[in-house]
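Handout for the seminar on molecular recognition.
Each group receives one record of this type.
Step one: identify the two inputs.
Step two: read the structure output and locate the region that could contact iron/sulfur cluster.
Step three: write two sentences on what you found, then compare them with the reference statements printed after the record.
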Amino acid sequence: MFGKYSPFINAGIALFFGRLSKKPFPWYVNFFITNKCNLKCPYCYAVTNRNFDSATAVEGTSRSKDPSLDKILEIIDGLYSIGTRYICLLGGEPLLRDDLGEIIAHINAKNMLVGLNTNGTLIDRKIEVLKRLNKLTISLEGDKEKHDYDRGKGTYDKVMQNIRLLKEKKFRNFAIQMTVSTATVHSWEHILEFAREVGCTVLITEVACRPGESLESAKFDKKELKSFWLRVNELKRRGYPIENSFEAISNVLKYSDYIGPFQILKNIDTFPESLQNFTKHNICPMGKYSAFLDSNGIVYPCATLFGRRGYDTKRLSIKKAFELMSRDNTCKCCRMLLNYQLNYLFSSVNPNTLLHLGWHALRKYNY
Ligand code: SF4
Ligand code: SF4
């Protein structure tokens, strides 16, 4: 009856009643459907093999064989049965899967929302399949020099060409994801101009911080990072198509003095009292209403903890693994929590943020 809006309505109702019940459920799942990638970025989080810190949690390994199509469809059914209404397909590079069309069609048939994140180099090969997505997100790192340095010679031009192709084919439901790092913090504004030209939005995130790791690209100068987010705020006010809500930007700015890259806070005593109400219970909502499921069937609360503290859905069942994971998350705050836009749907229910996200969803939905 509601045609193309039906998956949005379905997802909205499920989230509304799920939140009312106060029981955790994985409404939004990032699902890694392949380990393979045609690129080799030095900071790739798909390559993980780290320690774990819980009796039932397992160590992540991500260079194993990809799951079969049957296994993926079975997982999608399992996720639906425990309340998932939005699946974002990730990799590796998900466009490398020959059966991608069947995977998307299966999610469509269940009336769930489906998104996909890609490095953008293979879009021209799968353009018809991508029309069935509710959202397509393409990574673009800074300028040509920086992008090609990290992702390989010629990749920047190829991605730009493919994004123009999306415009030509009249896609509206796509976004550029720009991950700010020490290398890109001064060379990103051209991406906003480009987004305006092709009619898409830009989602800005920071390099995922992982305590204990030494990642050159996340060794920001605090002042520099603050000026960056102030500039983001100013450009958004001037009408540039920035997806991050004003609430997200303002929280990054407010908390920047108390939490830097590589820090995960387990208590928030170091925050001034006025800032301690970030979430209703002062606990990060990731892992409660969203999850990351890797291609080995291990579920994690978020990308920062990817490969560190996961639960094995094969050993425990999807339902049990999610239940244990949602109880195990004792984190309070980190940089990812602050700049990961969807957290604002799962934590402080702010009407402005809901309107902002709703507007973005409807504006981009054209199939
Ligand atoms: S494009 Fe993405 S998945 Fe592929 S190597 Fe780079 S970061 Fe990893
Ligand atoms: S605070 Fe939240 S986003 Fe940050 S590491 Fe913990 S679970 Fe992940």
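Reference statements: Residues 2-21+37-364 form a domain with the TIM Barrel fold (CATH 3.20.20.70). The longest strand covers residues 174-180.
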